[in-house]
Design brief:
four-stranded antiparallel beta sheet; elongated; alpha/beta; five-stranded parallel beta sheet
């Protein structure tokens, strides 16, 4: 099997070279870029499995790169590398779609462990879903709307869109509340108590026009149910 390709976007030449050397020594194929503009161009055109992305860079910062990447290649695996370790930055990065956040300085063993973990998860991740046909209509995730057979349309908020698409991408298994908080809200479950998930589930059931479209599995979480086609 061909070794995974990793894209490293880091403006500090010494840091970038150290990462490239560590990854190459571990058997990975590596692409690299020295600023956000070049990094985004590579990120949208190249074939790779994981991006390592610095936040503070010339031309485009890491948040700009991540935002555009997730718009054009939703679901792309990304690890943020940054000296900015504040909670707000970590939460923002996770909300924008990053899979992990490594604070500088870090050792090569820690970085390689994070890389291996994210690659392991991402190989099991279903491809991003654009539309979903179900018993009561069609959910169009690119337009953030549900279309019904009678011609009616119902708008989905971005959070509802992301939540429903995650359920669809993980059809056939129970998704826990902790997983939803981490993957959709970008929050650590132990650090927050919220009823937001329940409110969004209720809202989605109404828009899907089927109480059984999202089933509550007591003590475990939620999964797609009888509303699926």
């Amino acid at each position: 099997m061909e070794a995974p390709t990793i894209l490293v976007v880091e403006d500090d030449r010494a840091v970038r070279q150290g990462i490239v050397d560590a990854l190459t020594f571990s058997g990975y194929q590596v692409l690299s870029a020295g600023d956000g503009e070049e990094g985004l161009k590579l990120a949208l055109q190249a074939n790779y499995q994981l991006m390592l992305l610095d936040l503070v860079m010339p031309k485009k910062d890491g948040f700009e790169v991540l935002t555009e990447l997730q718009r054009q290649r939703p679901g792309q695996a990304v690890i943020i590398l940054s000296a900015k370790g504040e909670e707000d930055d970590r939460v923002k990065g996770l909300k924008l779609g990053a899979d992990d956040y490594v604070v500088k300085p870090f050792g090569p063993r820690e970085l390689l462990a994070r890389v291996n973990a994210v690659l392991r998860r991402s190989t099991e991740r279903p491809a991003a879903v654009v539309e979903w046909d179900f018993s009561e209509g069609v959910a169009d995730f690119s337009r953030c709307e549900i279309r019904y057979p009678n011609g009616e349309r119902c708008e989905l908020s971005e959070r509802e869109r992301d939540l429903l698409r995650y359920f669809v991408s993980n059809a056939g298994r129970v998704v826990s509340r902790d997983e939803i908080l981490r993957r959709i809200w970008g929050l650590e479950p132990h650090a927050v108590e919220t009823r937001a998930i329940d409110m969004h589930i209720v809202g989605l059931r109404k828009k899907l026009r089927s109480p059984q479209s999202l089933v509550t599995v007591r003590g475990q979480g939620y999964m797609l149910g009888g509303g699926a086609a």
